[in-house]
Write a structure and sequence with these properties.
Structural class: alpha/beta
Strand content: 15-25%
Radius of gyration: 22 Å
Oligomer: single chain
Low-confidence stretches: 1-7, 28-36, 196-200, 202-207, 252-260
Helix content: 25-40%
Largest sheet: 8 strands, mixed
Number of helices: 13
Strand order of the largest sheet: 4-16-5-15-14-3-11-8
C-alpha cells in the first residue's frame, strides 16, 4: 500500500493541533530502539507508604499465593482476596516480580530515602530535608536516549507538585537534580493540543467545542484518503472518541471557562486524587499512542502520602497514619482499628487505578502490530515495601506489557533478594540500549551487583 505523507499532527482553528496515533498507513518517524524499528514505552506508576504484605501477625494480602503461571482464573479465584486480583483481566500480560530489595544507607526519613532511591538505585546524600539521590533516575536515563526529538520524559503527580524531600523527590536529571512535577491535567493537555490559552478557552468552552471540532476539516480529509486502511479508520475513530471523553471529564463539557480554572486550582485537592490520576494516565496514553513521549513517571500522592482515600464507603484516616497503624505520623499513638485491612483496601484501589491505565493502553494499536500495551512496560511500584517498618526488602513490582516482546508475561517470579537496580537494567535493555554490545548492566550506584534479571527475559 502506498503511504500517506509523513504527518504526526492535524492542525486546525486557533493554532489548535491534535497528535495522531501510530497508523499502519502513515509513515512512522522518530527515534527508534537500537536493535529494531519498533519503539518501547515505559511508565512508572508509584505510591508511597508501602503495601500490605505478610508481616508479623498480618497475613499476606498483596502477592499471588504461589509463584509460576498467572491466569485470569487464578487471580480471580484462588487469589481473589489479594490486591493483585484487581488485575485479573490482564493476567496473561502481567509479570509480577517479588524478592527485589533497595540498597542504600539509611539517612533520616525512610520515606525520603525510599522515594529518592526507587528510580535512581543510587546512594543518598545528606539527610532529612536535604535527602537527595546522587544520580539520574531510570526514566531520565531512558527518555534522553529514546524519546523523539529530545523530549523530556513526563513527570506527573496527582497531589501536590513540589521538590520537597518527601513529595517530589523521585525523578532526577543528574546528581541531586530533582525534576519538576506537573499535576494539572488541563495545562498538560493544552501543551499537547493547544497553542494559546485564550483561543483554546474561547473555542472549547464558550462555544462548547472539542479540539476534534477545531480540526474537523483536516480530519475529514484524512479519513477520506484512499491510502488510509480500514483498520486505521477504526483507530482514528477510537482516538478522537477518547479525546472527547477526556475533555468532557476534565471540563464537564466545556460549559464554563471558570470551571476550567477551578479544575486547575483544585488539582491538588484530596477529593480529586483519583480523578486527576486517571486523567494524567489518559494523557500519558495519548502521548504514547501518538509517539510524543515514550517515558512517564506517574506518582499518586506524596512520599509519605497523607491522602484520605475513599474506601469501604467513606473517606478514611490519612493513609500515612494507616500505614503506621496508629493515629499519628510517628510510631506512637492510639491504634487505628483494622488499619491493616484499610491499607489493603487502599492497595486494591491503587490496583484499580493502574488497571485503568492498562485499559487505555489496550485501546490503541502499537507499532509492533498488537495492542499498545504489548509495546509498553507499565510498572506499578512503591517507594517502600510494607506498612509499619516501612522496609526496603521485597519491594512490590507489577509489570504489564512485554516491551515489544522482550519480557515474559503471565508469570509471578521471585528474585530471591537481588537488588532492584537489575530490574532497571532490564528495562533499559528492553529499549534497545546496549553496553559494549551486551545488555545494559550498570545502572545505579557504583558497587552494586550489575547485570539484568535474565529470568524476566522472554
Amino acid at each position: 500500500m502506498s503511504k500517506l505523507s509523513r504527518r504526526r499532527f492535524l492542525a486546525g482553528a486557533a493554532g489548535c493541533t491534535v497528535a495522531l496515533p501510530l497508523l499502519e498507513s502513515v509513515e512512522f518517524s522518530g527515534a527508534a530502539k537500537a536493535n529494531d524499528d519498533s519503539p518501547v514505552y515505559t511508565a512508572f506508576f508509584k505510591q508511597g507508604n508501602g503495601v500490605q504484605q505478610s508481616l508479623g501477625d498480618e497475613p499476606e494480602r498483596f502477592w499471588p499465593s504461589a509463584t509460576g503461571a498467572l491466569t485470569r482464573d487464578i487471580l480471580s479465584g484462588r487469589d481473589s482476596g489479594r490486591a493483585v486480583s484487581e488485575l485479573a483481566d490482564f493476567a496473561d500480560q502481567l509479570l509480577i516480580v517479588s524478592g527485589l530489595n533497595q540498597d542504600y544507607q539509611g539517612r533520616g526519613c525512610g520515606h525520603a530515602a525510599g522515594l529518592a532511591c526507587l528510580l535512581t538505585a543510587h546512594e543518598l546524600v545528606e539527610g532529612g530535608p536535604d535527602t537527595r539521590a546522587n544520580g539520574e533516575s531510570v526514566d531520565w536515563f531512558i527518555g534522553t536516549r529514546c524519546n523523539p526529538d529530545g523530549v523530556e520524559p513526563l513527570n506527573l503527580v496527582s497531589g501536590r507538585a513540589s521538590g520537597n524531600y518527601v513529595t517530589g523527590n523521585a525523578s532526577y536529571s543528574g546528581p541531586r537534580q530533582v525534576r519538576p512535577q506537573r499535576n494539572n491535567p488541563i495545562a498538560l493537555y493544552r501543551d499537547l493540543f493547544g497553542d494559546g490559552e485564550e483561543e483554546f478557552n474561547s473555542l472549547t468552552a464558550e462555544r462548547q467545542q472539542s479540539v476534534n471540532d477545531l480540526v474537523r476539516a483536516e480530519l475529514t480529509d484524512l479519513m477520506g484518503s484512499a491510502a488510509l486502511s480500514s483498520a486505521d479508520r477504526v483507530r482514528l475513530d477510537q482516538h478522537f472518541s477518547f479525546i472527547r471523553d477526556l475533555e468532557v471529564r476534565m471540563a464537564c463539557g466545556f460549559d464554563d471557562v471558570s470551571y476550567l480554572e477551578a479544575v486547575r486550582d483544585q488539582a491538588e485537592a484530596n477529593d480529586n486524587r483519583e480523578d486527576v490520576m486517571r486523567m494524567l494516565m489518559d494523557i500519558t496514553a495519548l502521548s504514547f499512542a501518538c509517539d510524543l513521549n515514550r517515558v512517564a513517571v506517574l506518582q499518586m500522592g506524596s512520599g509519605n502520602d497523607g491522602t484520605r482515600y475513599f474506601v469501604n464507603g467513606s473517606y478514611q484516616n490519612r493513609f500515612h497514619r494507616i500505614s503506621h497503624r496508629v493515629d499519628s505520623d510517628g510510631s506512637d499513638g492510639p491504634a487505628i482499628p483494622n488499619a491493616d485491612l484499610l491499607h489493603h483496601e487502599i492497595d486494591r484501589l491503587h490496583a484499580r487505578i493502574f488497571r485503568h491505565f492498562l485499559e487505555r493502553l489496550s485501546l490503541y494499536s502499537g507499532p509492533s502490530g498488537g495492542s499498545l500495551l504489548n509495546d509498553c512496560m507499565a510498572c506499578w511500584t512503591n517507594d517502600l515495601s510494607n506498612g509499619p517498618p516501612h522496609g526496603r526488602n521485597n519491594m512490590p513490582f507489577v509489570i504489564a506489557g512485554s516491551g515489544g516482546g522482550f519480557l515474559r508475561q503471565g508469570q509471578y517470579l521471585d528474585m530471591g533478594g537481588q537488588t532492584h537496580n537489575k530490574l532497571w537494567n532490564t528495562f533499559i535493555s528492553a529499549h534497545g540500549i546496549r553496553e559494549g554490545g551486551d545488555y545494559y548492566g550498570s545502572f545505579g550506584k557504583a558497587g552494586l551487583d550489575g547485570g539484568i534479571l535474565n529470568a524476566l527475559i522472554a
